[in-house]
Amino acid sequence: MRRDSRLSGVLHILLHMARQDGPTTSEEMAKAMDTNPVVIRRLMAGLRDHGYVRSERGHGGGWTLVCDLSTVTLRDIYTALGCPSLLAIGNRTEAPGCLVEAAVNSVLDESFRDAESLLLSRLGEVTLAMLSADVRRRLAARGRSRRGEKGTRRPT
Amino acid sequence: MRRDSRLSGVLHILLHMARQDGPTTSEEMAKAMDTNPVVIRRLMAGLRDHGYVRSERGHGGGWTLVCDLSTVTLRDIYTALGCPSLLAIGNRTEAPGCLVEAAVNSVLDESFRDAESLLLSRLGEVTLAMLSADVRRRLAARGRSRRGEKGTRRPT
DNA sequence: GCCTCATGTAACTAATGATGTTATATGATG
DNA sequence: CATCATATAACATCATTAGTTACATGAGGC
Predict the structure, then answer these.
(1) Residue A2 Cβ < 7 Å to strand C
(2) Taking the alpha carbons of A33, A37, A40, A42 in that order, is the dihedral positive or negative?
(3) Cβ distance A14 to A128 under 8 Å?
(4) Is B131's CB within 8 Å of A104's CB?
(5) Share of chain B above pLDDT 90, in %
(6) In a designed cystine with B70, which of A27, A33, A118, B129 is the match (CB 3.0 to 4.6 A)?
């Protein structure tokens, strides 16, 4: 099954925004992520509704971060995306009439719940600020390893 | 995203087989699961290749359990199905050139790995025998609660 | 031997959901 | 008022699971 990459994508966007002063347009983001501006706007809509970013139209418009990165977790972002389902596998039927199937559902559901809980709590432990700091670390590391080399790339 | 229910389905099948003496035909299973015999055969193919069940053609043919239920775990069954992906979400790109995306991937991958590991180990803790015992318990419980009532249903 | 039953498998259809694209409306700025 | 940028609907695309049809293969029963 193909995997939903909206969380990954929206985090990518937010971190790029964090490294920029003014507003960023959907056009610019789309270019950096090699996709379409409409896709960006769709991703950002939920974040705007939750007050994590602001959008402005017209000249000099675009998207701006309006939250404290140190208090927003990846789980918050996931929630803002509408809590898409985390697991790719599930039970054939909910509330089956068949007792055999009920027994299967029971044991599988328990495992599913545990895995989902763990993932959610992991996401809840990481703030956007922590992620942003990690990006800075990585940039610094690359700067060191490339010092003196030609053609150091800037992040896309 | 729609969830892959093959594990759930195949467990349902196996437990029905465990409650039956002779071989069970795909036709019968399909009827019990309200689906098509071909779907059943597709599900069972992997289990046969792993030696958990045997299939026989012709008169009196069908599917038979040929493993020790107490040594086969749900994880083994999952593996026999070809290890379908467990998570519905994932990273936009593997091995991105962009450092920002690399940072996102890194933190998300870690969480994904943890959740997958937990789910797999949970599945590894449950044997088919345990599940089968649970089915018996449930049947007994229903038998008690329905004693004297009319129209007690048999499992489908 | 031949008929029937059952699996084995390929090929096609349907349904679902993420992603990409086009088109049009709305609003802000100079 | 022309331009820029978001807002959103509508539609196309793609991947994947599930369901269906069709035909081949092999095992008994008679």
Answers:
(1) yes
(2) negative
(3) yes
(4) yes
(5) 83
(6) B129
Identity of the amino acid at A10:
V
Q: Do A111 and B119 touch (CB under 8 A)?
A: yes
Residue A121 has a pLDDT of 97
Measured CA to CA, the distance from residue A99 to residue A12 in angstroms comes to: 46
Which ranges in chain A belong to alpha helices (H)? 6-18, 26-33, 37-49, 74-80, 99-125, 128-146
The answer to whether B24 touches A108, Cβ cutoff 8 Å, is no
Q: How far is A47 from chain B (nearest CA, A)?
A: 17
Token couple for B33: 């699961």
Tell me, what's the pLDDT at A87? Answer: 97
CA distance B113 to B106: 11
Domains of chain B (ranges, CATH numbers) = 6-146 (1.10.10.10)
Cβ of B96 near strand C (under 7 Å)? The reply is no
Q: 10 Å Cβ neighbour count for A66? A: 11
Residue among A3, A104, A131 whose CB faces B104 most closely: A131
Residue A36 to residues A24, A27, B81: CA-CA distances in angstroms?
15, 8, 37
Contact B9, B123 (CB under 8 A): no
- CA atoms of A121 and A109, how far apart (whole Å): 18
Query: Separation of CA A30 and C1' C24 in angstroms?
Result: 21
Contact A86 B115 (CB under 8 A): yes
A90-138 pLDDT tens trace? 999 988 788 999 999 999 999 999 999 999 999 999 999 999 999 999 9
